[in-house]
From TrEMBL:
GO terms for molecular function: GTP binding; GTPase activity; translation initiation factor activity. Keywords: Coiled coil, GTP-binding, Initiation factor, Mitochondrion, Nucleotide-binding, Protein biosynthesis, Transit peptide. Belongs to the TRAFAC class translation factor GTPase superfamily. Classic translation factor GTPase family. IF-2 subfamily. SUPFAM superfamilies: Initiation factor IF2/eIF5b, domain 3 (SSF52156), P-loop containing nucleoside triphosphate hydrolases (SSF52540), Translation proteins (SSF50447). Pfam families: EF-G_D2, GTP_EFTU, IF-2. It comes from Tursiops truncatus (Atlantic bottle-nosed dolphin). It is found in: Mitochondrion. This is Translation initiation factor IF-2, mitochondrial. Residues 197-367 form the Tr-type G domain. One of its GO terms (cellular component) is mitochondrion. One of the essential components for the initiation of protein synthesis. Protects formylmethionyl-tRNA from spontaneous hydrolysis and promotes its binding to the 30S ribosomal subunits. Also involved in the hydrolysis of GTP during the formation of the 70S ribosomal complex. The keyword Transferase does not apply. The keyword Mitochondrion applies.
Amino acid sequence: MSTSRGELALGVQAGERRNMNQKILKLENLLRFHTICRQLHSLYQRRMLAQWRHVFSSAYLVWTAQLYPQPWQTHALIRTALSQHRLLVTKKEKKSQKSQLSSTKSKKEVEVWIGMTVEELARAMEKDIDCVYESLLNTAVDIDSLEAHSHLDEVWIKEVIKKSGMKLKWSKLKQDKVRENKDAVKRPQADPALLIPRSPVVTIMGHVDHGKTTLLDKLRKTQVAAMEAGGITQHIGAFLVSLPSGEKITFLDTPGHAAFSAMRARGAQVTDIIILVVAADDGVMKQTVESIQHAKDAQVPIVLAINKCDKAEADPEKVKKELLAYDVVCEDYGGDIQAVHVSALTGDNMMALAEATIALAEMLELKADPTGPVEGTVIESFTDKGRGPVTTAIIQRGTLRKGSILVAGKSWAKVRLMFDENDKVINEACPSMPVGIIGWRDFPSAGDEILEVESEPRAREVVHWRKYEQEQEKNKEDLELIEEKRKEHQEAHRKAREKYGTLHWKARSFIKYKIKKQQQPLKPKEKAGGDSNVLPIIIKGDVDGSVEAILNIMDTYDASHECELELVHSGVGDISENDVNLAETFHGVIYGFNVNAGNVIQQSAAKKGVKIKLHKIIYRLIEDLQEELSSRLPCIVEEHTIGSLISLKHHKDDISVIKTGMDCGLSLDEEKIEFKVGDDIVCYEEKEVLAKTSWDPGF
């Protein structure tokens, strides 16, 4: 509003100057016209005198006729005078317009942009910063709070340029030259004539401890369960199982815990069939429902494996009925989902489960194109000592061979070595086949699409393009964030101006001083005491899928009002000296999952007072994290009742209230209490109890 009034005032002043110039011009014209009239009047008088003298002398008349003009000559003179006057006025107006145009053209043009600072505006104007301040005097801008790096609104930029007598030019954002899309993409769908049958890719899903890992162990005849702690698979793996019938099934071993819901969902993206494992003695649990939802989202058919049927308390029919509530209808109840009663412990009906899976795969008519460039999906990536970055992948199209150039995410590889689930070196991998790939320049992420390209330069080109796209997207997000913060700052400044606008400048300065004093950084001792309710942590895991799963759990943390959980760093690999240094700097704790910390690292951590906590089971790590969070909370004081009053008497009368200074008789329900003269009677005791965090990770 203040800007509009200022612009209106300037407009009124300009209008008054125009009116004054017009009046002066009119006055000059009137003066010229008056002069011409006097000249014409003089001519008219001479004409009358000439006519009067004509009566007396004809000779004099001739002389007078020569001396004085005739009427027609007078009229011509008037016309000439008026024409000269109009020409004079027109020339002056044109000259005035030209001078105005020349003055407009002579104005300096200043290139400005939205959000520029005071210093940037002064530099663009080639003026001192004080010039900007002077231009903003007597405006709504708080000059006291305006610094050289302060951002100016659009209206104030215009005001400064206008008062400085310069011309405004908005700067167009510099647009980089549009780069050609260099990304690699999938090939068009293959000719049906080139497709051949392939093995199904099967994912085992289910609740923790429902026997999923033991079931896989029986199917592939290996001791996977013996190598995994707590009976829970720690990260995604891929295995090819050959059945006695000659059929092959590729299994994706996704974790059975709710903490790995994101990894299970990623596994379902490359899955043809899901085997849902439900314990007959436990029924449908939370993770069972999540697994069903993942299958529905991915539109993947289900084979139901009711496990632990060898137990006396097993009730398979109860499981089937519970699943009806989630639209999982078995064939016994008129649906199309096969249900197989199995016992992973004894091996009962394992072949029946495999046959049910193969039967469903035949109905799906799974086929793939084994020719042309390779297409696949990264299942997991990790670091192997002596091998570098390694990925487990499922090939979905083409045939992978040694020497192939692959791109996945923002990483690329020249395949140096391939191996199967038994660590046996193989020469090629066909569709539906799981394979370990060595030769990556960097870590691809689990779930990244693998594409084969023709050469290493082409692979670098694709990676550079993807990094460029990511950078552009990040820049866009940063600009949006900066603009949002700028608006928040302006709104806060506006509210502060409204709040302090009515105060005297001394009172306003005193309030600002107090605010700045409160914002001063804390001293080291004060900071150490103030950060007690913050827990900085560092997460290290064996594979990126495990780290991602832990971070997903941390995303559910909702108790920041009790203690802030701050992630300082996360990564793949063993605990390093850099991790210890980071933990020391931030006074944090290091959590390691399926990784090691050497003796040298542990000794260094002990000297620096850094805690290193290593775990093999995911939910044990989370429980440890909960305990660490709880230790940062103040103790809770609890009251424990020792006795309760059952009667109160004054003399022989039962009363409910006794006043100060009166004697009374008490009866307590606790017989073991002995009274002595001078004892104070207290009916409860207070105990300090360690507080527990209210964060519930969901298990």
